[in-house]
Amino acid sequence: MSGPNLHLLRRWLSAALVVLVLGAVMITPTSYGALTLQERVPVPLQAESEYSKLTADDGAAGDGFGNAGAISSDTIIVGAVRDDDNGENSGSAYIYVRGGSAWTQQAKLTADDGAAGDGFGSRVAISGDTAVANGDSNDTKGSAYVFVRTGITWTQQAKLTASDGAALDAF
User: Fold this and answer.
1) Are 68 and 121 within 8 A, CB to CB?
2) Per-residue pLDDT tens for 106-125?
């Protein structure tokens, strides 16, 4: 495909239950982006695949939802690098949890010091109750933000930067 219908896809795999996460970052210039989950019980059970579609509760055209993602057990983190909550293209990350066969949005993460152009959520990672999202342009050197879940609440615990960081490092 090409032109305005170009699909930018990203893929992530989970080892527990095989979950293929496909992120459609931009389908058309006015699209919000979405994730499609294909779940399959590992061999030898060979159950039928199930599909789920994740979207941001507050999604807006051009947010870049699905530009990055990671999964840990029944929790997924999804980047939206061009979200505008803290200024144009400040970025955000969304947390989804699975209850039974349904995925629901649990939280929206933004940097406490987020600002326009940060690109927060351009890369994300998750393990258990800890999630990390970076901001490529934050302070022009880049940084990574650590969030911890207590119950259903996610709280920023730290901002990590390189001690020898220089402009455009994209840490």
Assistant:
1) yes
2) 999 999 999 998 899 989 99
